[in-house]
Amino acid sequence: MIRAELTKLRTVRGWLFGLTAAVVLFVGSALLVAAGSHMSCGDQACPAPPVGPDGQAVEDHFGFAHRTLAGDGSLTAHVRDFSGIITYPPPRHDQIVEGLVPWAKAGLVIKDGTRPGSPYAAVMLTGSHGVRMQHDYVHDRAGGPTGARWLRLTRTGASVTAYASLDGKTWTTVGTVEMSGPAEIGFLIASPGDITVTENGLGGTSVQSRFTQASAVFDQITSTAGGEWRYDEVGGGGPGADWEKYHRPAGLEASAGRLTLTGSGDLAPVSGMAAVPYLAGTVPALLAVLIVAVLFITSEFRRGLIRTTLLASPARGHVLAAKAAVIGGVTFTVVLVAVVAARAWSTTVFRANGNIVLPTGALTDLRLAVGTAALLAVTAVLAYGLGVLLRRGLPAILLAVLLTVVPYLLATTSLLPPGAGEWLLRVTPAAGFAVQQTFPAYGHVLLPYTPAQGYFPLAPLAGLAIAAAWALGLLVLAVLRFRRADV
Amino acid sequence: MTDAAAALRAEWTKARTVPDLPLAILLALVGTTSVNVLTGQPSAGLQLGQAVIAVAGVQILAGEYSTGLIHPTMLAFPTRWPALLAKAVLLIPGAAVTAIGNRPRDAVYLGLIALLGLGTAALIRNAVTAAGVVLTVLFVLPTMVRWMPDPDWATFLYRASPSPGHLATTAAWTAAALLLGTITLLTRRVS
Amino acid sequence: MEATIEVSGLSKRYGSTVALDRMTFRVTPGQVTGFVGPNGAGKSTTMRILVGLDRADAGTAKVGDRSYHELVRPMTTVGTLLDAAAIHPARTGRNHLLWLAQSQRIPAGRVDELLEEVGLAGAARRRGGGYSLGMRQRLGVAAALLGDPPILILDEPFNGLDPAGFVWMRDLLRRRAEQGRAVLVASHLMGELQDLAGHVVVVAGGRVVADAPTRDMRDRYGSLESAYLELVR
User: Fold this and answer.
1) Residue C12 gets which letter from DSSP?
2) B127 in contact with A at a CB cutoff of 8 Å?
3) CB A144 within 8 A of CB A111
């Protein structure tokens, strides 16, 4: 029966054309986006961001005052003062104000040298998230008593343990991580850019980051590592902001047992939707697939072919299931091919234009490819189910688009308030788009984790499951109705 | 002109004797208004309304190809244009009604979208495919904008998409669809 | 205007298939003209070109000295039944005829008259989706007769009719012909046409192979059926 339905599908020229159109739209959109992206840094290629220990692109830029730590050892200090400036914050963007951004960092760090992207473990005071222990860019945990200003970092064997204290006498463990080998131990200062989201006038949003700087005074320092405190701006070396030139340069000042460390930057994973252009054609391809899926069933009703089909195989539930399997399976295969082709081809073009392709990891790549194919297959089955239920093509295609593409569009543009958009992406079949989220959202990186930026309210598989539940539910409803219907 | 008047009368009878068009307009009206009220964003409801209205525009012509009704229509109007004109004239107020509660320009916009559907149906004739193509123009172009890294391309794509904010662009799409559709309708054989 | 149909040198190809190959014949008023030939011989294409649904590659097809698309209120000149009436499944038979009448500026009263005449008065307010093939055929005939046209073009008018319907259709066509109208009837029913048609046009492979009074055919071949079998072989 599946073979018969497969033959039906591939012998109608219009449907083959539709499936081909889906592939062409998918690959074409990816190429278009890749070809339209140009990046250059003067005459040379832009430097790729460093890669962290877990394989992802990271920002590793901070002020570092350090000594060499040979084996075991510890560093204790009191954060006497922690302040900073933020340039031109909202609402009026007209002045430079005193203040710290929420994830400004001042603290102690053990790091495998000063090479950007190298492993580290750190305990820090933050602008508004208290004491944290962070390591290797993506890992973050809160700890220590509220209001603690005393920090300690100890290495014993291969473990690094962080402590915090209110008075320098009673210590609370914040966390322990594994880290061995030769290392530098010392102080860090970092202050990520101040992020604001504005409507870009194109129905979407754009994210802007403005310069900030933090400054911390450490005193009552106890260190087992000896020698001078050497200063390095890890990952730095840029021209510096005007503020740094005219007011306060980044750097280290040491006097009478006090260290004053000033700087900007962050230790954090880097993400960006535009860095993965090959999924751009998903919605165009989806429309083509929806048309084929709806026609695949409603044309049978319209031409009375369904009677012939049922004469050949009277088990109606089986017939519908076979057709669903065929439209789902064929869509999955075709889209998978399209994703692989789009990825290979558009990445080449994208790189050739000087763009940087952020590493995403093999598992994520696999999930994006298979997930996108599954998303379109599930949506095709959903449209097919609507076709069986409504029996007429136009209401079916309309409803399919209203259930999938329209919620996605509303949620990813500035047409709806953000909360409403995310709600749509939880309950409608458009939830399935969550499978395309490329980068995880990190609690310790302040970014607009909105659908417009490629972040979805549901986990990838959970979102896909919602879409699949819709498709399955409609299909079951359709089968129940169709079994008792006159054809 | 008498042909056009007779066609208008005939099309009016057609439209009111089956529930398709009244139902679509009702659905568009209820959908648009309720989304507007729920979100407090007048432009959000319009997204839903325009989808329904576009499909209604497709349906009024392409539906005749599905049922075979196109034959008697063409036999009644062998020059073909009076039937197309009458359908267009009927659609505009039907679409505009949907924008009650929105700005007046939104009514104009929905009228243009209905005609975009009609023109596409004349061009493509298969109802589902025509509806899919119109919905692609309405919804896919805007979703592509955010993928465009180059601001010039993004701006171009944004400006090139039909939207309540760009009546001139929308009118250009509608005019192109109607022109190509009319030429096709007048020259090609009837299914 | 003279109630005639004039097909002259009509040619039409669909891709590599030749549908019509210089098809030429004339239908005169006052009698039923049978239009016969095997499936795919070009009967339907000719009829579709006559009423402007298809365009010919070459040649002319005129109804009452004009092309169909030049006619004002065309259904008052030519009544056409191609397939069984295409009707929207949700529209009633009466409303279907009503919009057609309005399109030709025919008074609505004519609609009820015709519904009575074709025997659909009882079903006039039922939805078209529930009509049987025979009922749709009667509705199609009503549409063809709506404008009281001097020319009738009917493709397989007996399709789907019951025995009483056959008698009714036969009488209807004969009476229209006697009123001086031109009636072109395409059909595979040789027995029916032998009694009904005064003239027969036999086509095969897109061209006319015989064009003669029915009586001559019968005299020469014994019956219209034998004539047909002989001619299209």
Assistant:
1) E
2) yes
3) no
Which positions in chain C touch B63 (Cβ < 8 Å)?
Answer: 88
CB contact under 8 A, C100 and B190: no
Residue A99 in tokens: 């203040």
Q: What is the pLDDT of residues A416-457, one digit of tens each?
A: 777 888 899 999 999 999 999 988 889 999 888 888 888 899
Interface contact B85, partner C, CB < 8 A:
no
Q: Do C99 and B7 touch (CB under 8 A)?
A: no
Which chains contact B through at least 3 pairs of Cβ atoms less than 8 Å apart? Answer: A, C
The pLDDT mean for chain B works out to: 89
Beta-carbon contacts of A113 under 8 Å, excluding residues fewer than 6 positions away, are A182, A183, A184
Name the residue with higher pLDDT: A65 or B32.
Answer: A65
The answer on pLDDT for A141 being more than 90 is yes
Cβ neighbours of A287 in B, within 8 Å: 132, 135-136, 139-140
> For residue A273, is pLDDT > 60?
no
Chain C residues closer than 8 Å to B78 by CB: 51-52, 68-69, 71, 74
Which residue segments constitute the domains of chain C, with CATH numbers given? 1-64+150-233 (3.40.50.300), 86-149 (no CATH)
What tens digit of pLDDT does each residue of C60-88 get? 999 999 999 899 999 999 999 987 777 88
The answer on pLDDT for A270 being more than 80 is: yes
CB neighbours (10 Å) of residue A366? 10
> How high is the pLDDT of residue A436?
92
Nearest CA in chain C to B8: C103
Alpha helices in B68-166 (DSSP H): 70-76, 81-97, 104-124, 127-135, 141-145, 151-160
Q: Give which of C41, C71, C75, C24 is closest to C231, Cα–Cα.
A: C41
Q: Do A295 and B129 touch (CB under 8 A)?
A: yes
Strand partners, A202: none
| C82–chain B Cβ distance below 8 A for any pair | yes
Pull the structure tokens for residue A182. 């030769």
- Among the residue ranges A431-440, B20-29, B137-146, the one predicted with the least confidence is B137-146
Q: Domain residues of chain B, as ranges?
A: 2-187
Candidate from C80, C88, C105 with C-beta closest to B6: C105
Query: Are B143 and A405 inside 8 Å of each other by CB?
Result: yes
Q: Which of the residues C103, C136, C141 would you substitute to probe the B interface, choosing the one with the greatest number of B C-beta atoms within 10 Å?
A: C103
CATH number of the A58-269 domain: 2.60.120
Reported confidence tier of residue A237, pLDDT bands at 50, 70, 90: low
Cross-chain residue pair B13–C99, CB shorter than 8 Å: yes
Report the DSSP beta bridge partners of residue A73.
Answer: A155
pLDDT digits (tens, 9 = 90+) for A158-192: 999 999 999 999 999 999 999 988 899 999 999 99
